[in-house]
User: Fold this.
Amino acid sequence: MTFQVWGWRREDAPQVLAWVPGAEGGRAGVPMRRSLATKDPTAVERANLLNMAKLSIKGLIESALSFGRTLDSDYPPLQQFFVVMEHCLKHGLKVRKSFLSYNKTIWGPLELVEKLYPEAEEIGASVRDLPGLKTPLGRARAWLRLALMQKKMADYLRCLIIQRDLLSEFYEYHALMMEEEGAVIVGLLVGLNVIDANLCVKGEDLDSQVGVIDFSMYLKNEEDIGNKERNVQIAAILDQKNYVEELNRQLNSTVSSLHSRVDSLEKSNTKLIEELAIAKNNIIKLQEENHQLRSENKLILMKAQQHLEVTKVDVETELQTYKHSRQGLDEMYNEARRQLRDESQLRQDVENELAVQVSMKHEIELAMKLLEKDIHEKQDTLIGLRQQLEEVKAINIEMYQKLQGSEDGLKEKNEIIARLEEKTNKITAAMRQLEQSDNDLLTQTRTIAMSLVKCASSDTQDQYKLVKDISF
Assistant:
């Protein structure tokens, strides 16, 4: 019995397992036909892991595309993919000694990605915050699952394999991640970006899982392949049968719809025949009416021509009359235009004179405001002097009363009275002067008002009222 691994037969297994990327300038992917005994065991391990990674990634993508692209944690090809990736990352890993035992885990290099790729800090913090993880291997498995869901696994591992000087702290020089096979696997991981993974990392027991590769998923029996081909052929025949039955049902429904359509067309045809007969009768009637209308139209046309001739004669006479009247209108128009020109010139002169009168009016109003202001100031001064006079009179009365009450200070009081009388005389003289100046201002105001009356004889009633108020 022979086996087939996705297109390869078991007889070709030595060649497949011995596939080594070309070294020393050779092309990658060229199978070397040598026996396994003459090869480096680490190179064979790398080739085997590379082939298993190819098979798992290819099978995962194909099954996901047929399954619907969105995968969960229980999907077997996805579980096998994580197992294969775990073996690839463990290959050539250095053993670290601790106090209790030897430690050989892949969490160290994966944790290094945070320093090389800033966007990986979030996934590292999420893995460390998961409550159910106790071992570094469990954290590494959770990291791989989160990276696949983010579709960034290829980017993260590419940054890791570029820094081989940093990887040398975790891997031997012959490890898969240190050789070209690691770069090939990272390139294959880019194809997983077409898959949407919905994985529940929280609550899953990732510490105690046993990572064993299930080769039965990739090895297929020829009899199974033949049965599968027969099943495929039977399924194709059944699909064709179902297609023919569905086509037959569609044709039957089409025939029934056509029968109903034919019946409806026959009914509509009978209706159209009846309507055609009615339309023919209507056409005959319309033809008769058309003949009558044409005869009437001829009579109307003859009458219209006669009326047109009469109207033409009338129009010619009216045109002659219009020409005669047009000459008289032109003469009237020229006369009116000349009068309009004269009136416009007269109006311009009147407007200029009005502008001069308005400017004079503004100047007179300004002078009147200044005179009113001066009069108000003098009236305020006069009121102040009168108040002082009243105060002097009150003081005089008070002193006179005190004069009667005390004989000892009579002389001093007489002197004070004399001074007060002198002050009173001075104030009286000042008041007389102010009254004289006030009378002078009034005479000046009346003079200005009379000059306004003489200059602006055409002013309105409001200007006359203003002059009257000023000459109070």
